[in-house]
Design a protein that fits this description.
This protein is of the alpha/beta class and 119 residues long. It contains three helices and seven strands. A five-stranded mixed beta sheet has the order 4-3-1-5-6, covered by helices on one side. A hairpin with a 4-residue loop joins strand 3 and strand 4. The termini are far apart.
């Protein structure tokens, strides 16, 4: 499975608009590829653009601290059957990978409404 994450300079998983890097993490090979966060170059549709980019690269899930998705991008993710790894807040990439691998984090097909930003 490929999981999309947005990370900051300290390698913490953060909401789409806050991170400098889109990381695509392949859970089978335990490897990842980093890309510049395209949301930083856009004025509108930033979350949807990152979602589209990740899906085109094969992502099936998204690490999701609160405010990762707005209503519009969340609806698109659900429509595309993207799964979500709900995080309570910024989490280091290393901790995320360890918690997922040990079974402490499981994907879900929905996010709580309070974690989604109004469009």
């Amino acid at each position: 499975m490929i999981i999309a994450l947005v990370i900051d300079e300290q390698e913490s998983v953060v909401p789409i608009l806050e991170g400098a890097t889109i990381r695509l993490y392949d859970t089978d090979s335990q490897t990842y590829e980093d890309y510049p966060n395209i949301a930083k170059q856009l004025q509108e549709g930033r979350r949807s653009a990152v979602l589209r980019f990740a899906a085109e690269k094969g992502a099936e899930a998204f690490a999701s601290p609160p405010h990762t998705f707005c209503e519009r991008s969340y609806a698109q993710a659900v429509e595309q059957r993207i799964q979500f790894y709900l995080l309570e807040g910024p989490t280091s990439f290393r901790e995320f990978a360890q918690r997922r691998q040990s079974g402490l984090l499981s994907p879900t097909d929905q996010l709580p409404k309070e974690t989604i930003v109004a469009s």
